[in-house]
Write a structure and sequence with these properties.
single chain, alpha+beta, Adenine-n6-DNA-methyltransferase TaqI, Chain A, domain 2, 9-stranded mixed sheet, 27 helices, about 40% helix, about 20% strand
Length: about 800
Amino acid sequence: MLDSETKRHIDNARDILVGKVTDPKSQIDLITIALIYKFMDDMDLEAVDVGGKRSFFVKDLKNLAFSKIMDSKIGAQERMDLYAKVLEKLPFASSIPELFRTIFRDAFLPFRDPQTLTLFLKEIANFSYSNSENLGNAFEYLLSIMGSQGDAGQFRTPRHIIDFIVQVINPKKTESILDPACGTAGFLISAYLHVMKNNKNLSTREIQKFTQGITGYDIDPGMRKLALVNLYLHKFAEPKIFEYDTLTSDEKWNEKFDIIVANPPFMTPKGGIRPHNKFGVQANRSEVLFVDYIAEHLSINGRAGIIVPEGIIFQSSTAYKALRKMLVEENYLWAVVSLPAGVFQPYAGVKTSILFLDRKIAKSKNEILFVKIENDGFDLGAQRRKIEKNDLPNAITELVAFIQGTKPKTNTLIVSKLKLAEDGEYNLTAGRYQEHTGFTNCVYDLVKLGDVAEIISGQSPEGQYYNQNRNGIPFYQGRTEFGDRFLGEPKTWTTKTTKIALKNDILMSVRAPVGPVNVCKFDKICIGRGLAAIRTNEKVLWEYIFYLLKSMEDKIVGTGGAVFDSINRTQIEQIKIPLPPLETQKQIVAEIENKQQAIDNARRTIDLLEREREYFGSSLNGVKYEEVMLEKVCNQITDGTHITPHYTEKGIPFLRVTDITETNGSKKFISETEHKKLIKRCNPQKGNVLLTKNGTIGVAKDIDWDYEFSIFVSLCLLKPKPCISSKYLAIFLNSKDALLQMKGRSKVGTITNLHLVEIKQIKIPLPSLAEQEKIVAQFNEEQEIIEANKKLIEIMKKKIERVMERIT
C-alpha cells in the first residue's frame, strides 16, 4: 500500500511542474526520468558502501550523478546545465544498461527555469531505491493520474478490476504470461504479485525464471517506457516489454502463452487497420482482432481474461458473429462477466464485459456462465467513491463454483451452447436468454405479459418540436420524470406526436435503468425512447400489473447496449407473470391500496412538516424578537485551514463539506501534531456550529459530540455567545430564509463561495432564550413525527411485499 509520505512527495513534484508543464503524461515522463536517474545513483552509492565500485556514473559520467548535481554548492543555473547534459549523454553511455538507455531515449526538459528544476529535483531526492516495493506502489499511483488516452481508445483499467480478472485466471509460477496491449503493465504487475503472494518462499533464481516468462507488447513507445519502469520498480531484472504492433505485425505470431490478460484498445483508427492474413476471423475492427489474437495465441491448456466493449457481445455484423461463433464452437469461451457502465469513469461511460477463455474448461462444459456485476465497490460517478456494495467477491465464488460443477446462484445465468447457436447470432447478452420471472412456486398460471397487454415502444420526436410553453401534449422521456406511483408534472411538451401513452397505461423505463415502472395519469402523452407503455386488456387490472411489475423491478434484466443496458418490446412481452382470476386481482389490489393509502398519508405529513420548517418565519408567529447580524451573536466566526493537510490512515478526524452534507463516505484523518497546530486558529468544540461555505453552501450542523477534530476552509465555525442557543442557530441557518440570504451574498465561479465577511452580515431573528428553547423543542417534536412516519412507510412497504409474495 502506498504510504502518505511517498504520495505527498509525488503530489508535490507534480504541483511544482504544473505551472510549466500542463500535460499529465509529460509530468509523469519527467518524474519517471528523474526517479530512474536518482535510483541509478542510489545503486552506485550502495555498491560503494559495501566495498564495491560504481557501475553507472563512471568515467565521463562521474560528475553527472544525482548526488553530485544536487550538491548545495552548485547554483540553480549550473544545476540546470548539468541536468540537460545528463539527458543528452545517458541514452548513449556504454556504462548504462540497455534498459536505462531506452528509458532516457528522447528525454528532454520542456522548460528553462532553474529555480523550478531545483525545487523539483529536491522532491525527487526524497525517494530512495532501497524502498523499491513502495516505489512500485508510488509509480502505480503516478500512472493513475495519467487517466485517459481516449483518442486511441485506451482507458486505464481500474486496479480492482485487473485484480479480479487475475484472481479468476489464477496464474501459476511455471506459466508464461502475455498482455498484447500492455499499456503501463498493470495486468502483468497484478499477475506477478498474485503468484508471489501464493509462493512466498521462491528463491531469487525461481523469481527470475518466472519473470522471464512475463511479456508485454504495446504499439506506443511512450507506453513501453512506462511499462519498463513499472516492471523494473517491481524487481524485474530484465523486463520483456516490446514495442510491437500486435494487429499488423506477424513476427511474433508463432509464440504461445499459458495466460493472456488484456484490456485492448476499443477504438479503430480512422484509417482502419490492415491486419495480415493469419487471423482466423477476417475483420478490421481492433476489438475483434485482439480477441481473435488472444484466443489463437493460447497454449493448449491456456487461459485468458479480456475486457471487451459491448459490440463484441451483441453486434450483428459478420465479423462480430464470426468471432462469437469461433469462441463458442471451438471451445474457448466459458464465462461472460457484465460490468456496470461507470467502471471507466471519469474517462468514459462505455459499457464493458469480461470474456474468460479456457479451452480445458470450455471443452468440459455444454453451457456458458453469465455473471452480472451491479456494484464493484465504488459508486458510478466521476469521482468513483468507495461504497460498501461490491459484487466482485461473490462473482469469484460463483465462477469457481461453475468450474467445479456446482450450480451458481446470485446474479448468474447458465445458457447452453445450443441455445446460443439457435439463431446463428451467438449473442452473448444474458438478458436475451433470461426468463423474467422469480415465480418458481407460483400457485397461479404463468402467462407472458404480451398475452395480457399491448407493449408500445417509445419514440422521440425531433428536438425542434419540443417546448416549455405547454403547446401540444406532454412529452416524457425516462425514469427521471417518474413519481412514486404516477408521473410527475410535465416539463416538456411537443407539437409533434410519435408514440402515445394513455391514462392508466403503465410506463416502464427501458434504458438506464431497465425495469422501474410508473403510471400515466394524463389523458394522453407522448413517450420517448427511454420508455415503453404497457396497455392492459380485459384479462387483467392495470393496478394489479403495476404492483406486480413494481415488485419485480430489480429482476427485470435488459440486454447490453453500447453504453448502458436496455430492454426491447419483444423482451417485455416475454416477461412471465402469475395470472389469478379477476376477482382475486381485485382483492389483491384493494389490500395493497389500503396500505398504499397509509404510505401516501405518511408522505403528505412528512412533506407538510418539512415545508413548514423550510420557512423559519412560521416558527416565530406571535414571538417577540429583534433582527441582528450574525456577528453580533457569535464570539468567533472563522473557517478552517486554507492548506490541504497531510492525510494519515488514522488519527484526528478532518472534516470537509462532504462530511457535513453526508454525500461522501470517505473520512479523512490528520496527525495529532498537525491538529494541534490547526486548532490554535480554529478550534471547533461541542456547542459550536459548523456551516458549509464552499461548493454546497448553507448546510449547518450543531456540534453535539465530544471528540476532537479539525476542519477545512470549506467549513465555517461559529462560536455562539450566551444569548443564543447553538441548536436554535443551526435550525435557523438550515432554513430557506437563511439560504436565500446566503445565495444572495455568495460569489459564483467555478464553485460557489460564501466569504466570512458575508456570513457575518447574515441577519438572524433573535427572540429570548426561553422562546428559542420552545422553538427547538417544537423542531425536535416535529422531527420525531417525521421519523415515525418514515418508519410507518417502511412497515407498510414490507406488508405490500408480503401480499405480493402470496401471489408467488
